[in-house]
Amino acid sequence: MTDRARGAVLDAITRARQEIHGLGERRDSGPWPQAVSAAKEDSAAYLGELAALGLDPKAYEQVRAQLEDQTTHLHQLEARAQKLPEFAQDATRAWQAIHDLYEDRRDRRRALLDQIQDRSGMLRFTFQDNADTSAWVARVRDLLNLRADGFLTDLPALASWLWADAETRAARTAQWRHALIAGDLDALARDASLRSAFARRLAELDPLVRTRLAAEIAEEVIDMDFLRDGGDPARHRDWQPLTAGSPGQRSAAMLSFVLHHGNDPLVLDQPEDDLDTEWITQLVVRQLRASRWNRQVIVITHNANIPVNADAERVVVLENTGRGITVRHDVDEATGTCVEHCGPLEDQRVRADIQQILEGGVEAFIRRERRYNNELSSYRAALRQASVEMRPADK
């Protein structure tokens, strides 16, 4: 049994050796060793050529790795180049959106001021496009993070070159924008006469900062004029700039602006300050009466003409008792209850307080009665005229 087992093992070993030997012969005689040999010969020839050219054969692998990196980078650039038209369209849409935003804001501002001008009758607004260069310079200085004494004359000069001339404004701002985005300011520096230090500072900015800078637009300047007392709106000389008016005229003009701006509830604290009685009667009272139909107006005043002749719907009489401001009150003798001095002008307590406390209280009620009599007389005359016109003609 042992001899048979030993014989079987020896036979298996012999067969394995034969097969290994056969595989070696097939390997040496097949195409694989020929390919390996050819590759070795080619590599040796290539290394020989490199040596003949004076190149270090040891740097071969490094050069080959660099070639692969450059090839990959080239493919990436080609892929990005294919997307350039799409990026250009996106950029055009973005700049158009910024332009539309500025235009929409300007149109809204003008619509608001036109409404105030029409409602007030005494204010007029004129617009100067892209004239607020001082604010533009301030914003640009912030973006450039300049010192207080840095480029003091360069930025105002650039602002004047960009925004002053309406005929060249569009072309110059487009050139400014393209130069900032491209980072090439040579042509701009030449055309706008920029100092080299200033142009270099702009060129060295981060691309995002340059893009933000290109989006800055000089806002418009709004001049407000007011109509002189008794003036004719059709006459140019009857309009006066707000800055040239007296303190009372400026107060009156700003009060008119506030009263005709919007429909939200409004609180006015002593609007009669800096105004004489005539201004209060002719301007404040008249405009308060007009505004009350569009908004709620709460007025704190010491002048009787405002609540009386503006036809206040509710008057609250306040007094300082030493412990603070409280609503004035007293005790009703008939009922023994506390009655606050609040209510319409027809309330006897309110009427008495106005006449006793406020400046010109009695005169204000006299003026109010005269106005109502005049309005009532006009109404009766119009009513009689209408009755006559509607009466059937005699046959």
CATH class of the domain at 246-386: Alpha Beta
Helix content: 55-70%
**Stretches with pLDDT under 50, minimum 5 residues:** none
The CATH architecture of the domain at 246-386 would be 3-Layer(aba) Sandwich
Overall morphology: elongated
- Beta-strand proportion: 5-15%
- The N- and C-terminal alpha carbons lie at a distance of 161 Å
The CATH topology of the domain at 246-386 is given as Rossmann fold
Provide the structure class: mainly alpha
Taken in chain order, the helices and strands follow as: HHHHEHHHHHHEEHEHEHEEEEEEHH
Using the CA coordinates, give the radius of gyration. Answer: 46 Å
Q: Largest beta sheet: what is the strand line-up?
A: 1-2-3
* Number of helical regions: 15
Main β-sheet description: 3 strands, antiparallel
The overall pLDDT average reads 82
Annotation, overall tally of beta strands: 11
